[in-house]
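tool_call: predict_structure(chain=1)
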Amino acid sequence: MPNPRIGILALQGDVEKHRAALERAGATVREVRAPADLDGLDGIVLPGGESTTMSRLLRTGGLFEPLRAFLAAKPVLATCAGLILLAKNVDRLPYETFGLLDITAHRNAWGRQVWSFQEEIAWPHSVNGGRSPFKAIFIRAPRILRVGEGVEVLAGCRGEPVAVRQGNLVALAFHPELSGDDRIQRWWLAGIGR
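tool_result:
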């Protein structure tokens, strides 16, 4: 699909880095803040940020239910807090999640902001032949404690899953938009055209 139209949930989080990576990968990008912003999109990115704040803003802005319907039908790339919002089970989140991804997530489990780290992971999906390790950046990242039967583990770090896929949903515990390496965005966008 040439120039897929991709939304980025723009209530909070690193929208600009996601926008830049998606545009470099060939997407046309629109920020999503209201239900009407979902119209005509081919997929959406749920960025990292603060999951409690994002959950609250989704409800106060009337976006929660329209976005849940969109997420159930269209390709989704979720990073960090986006993974938490998709998860079926999450600890210590005072709001209901979308509950579409059959995982259990533990918020901020890789440590506080000052314990942020980078680690090379094996990314199994080639884009234009590139299969070198991917520099994953973890910032107050969630841990995936349980993976449901229909969930595929795409990548791991330190013996734990950090990237998963279930149907149209791809969720990462790390921030690919900060790496300067657009392979994951290119791989995800290539799947939208199939």
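agent: The chain has a mean pLDDT of 90. Proceeding to next step.
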